[in-house]
Write a structure and sequence with these properties.
Elements (H helix, E strand, L loop, with lengths): L3 H13 L9 H22 L2 E4 L5 H4 L3 E4 L1 H4 L31 E4 L6 E4 L5 H4 L31 H11 L6 H11 L3
Antiparallel strand pairs: 1-2, 3-4
The structure holds heme C.
Heme C binds next to strand 1, helix 4, helix 6 and helix 7.
Amino acid sequence: MRSDGDDLEGAFRRVCSGGLRLQDAPTRDSSARRQRAVAHGQALFNSKPIQITGVGGLNDDLGIATINGTCTTCHNAPNAGDHSVPLPLSIGVADASRRTPDMPLYTLRNKISGEKTQVTDPGRALITGQWKDIGRFKGSVLRALATRAPYFHNGMAKDLGEAVDFYNTRFGIGLTAPERADLVAFLKTL
Ligand code: HEC
């Protein structure tokens, strides 16, 4: 019977003689795969086209129905991922249609027009009292995302996959399953 010491010595000799190449070791392979996923995820974050429509604070304020953007249109502060200029936006997180039973539901009435709207959080409007600010929130810093699930101000995405799913549905981005996985791999490194 061979002892562990013999095995180790034998393995060492095989490596030295070229019988076992280090780059074949499974850990190296999976780390290269992970690096490729993160790099691809970063490229998606920077360049995957998103047709930005119906975002309060962006489309309405600028008077542009569709903005051809990317994740970085809004998450544009270098190395932080929030807005370099504070710009509260309504991307639809507080919409009544996305309410789960654990969230409140506010019905707000416009004093001038009589118009009514329902949201799970009035957002910026609580500070300004302005109708247009209902449901607007500051873009979050994306640093250290992996350490603080759940996501969005109301915690409606339990993990980063669900956060990406929200965008994929909300803006019809058309991310494939592998693209979703790579984008999540990238977000986990921030
Ligand atoms: C139209 C602007 C806009 C675009 C485009 C956008 N985001 Fe966001 N993002 C926001 C805002 C605003 C928030 C904060 C919303 C909230 O908490 O209600 C946010 C929050 C997030 C969060 C949650 C952070 C946290 O700490 O809870 C993640 C993750 C995120 N965005 C990732 C992305 C990714 C990935 C993309 C591209 C697929 C993207 N965003 C595109 C505006 C945008």
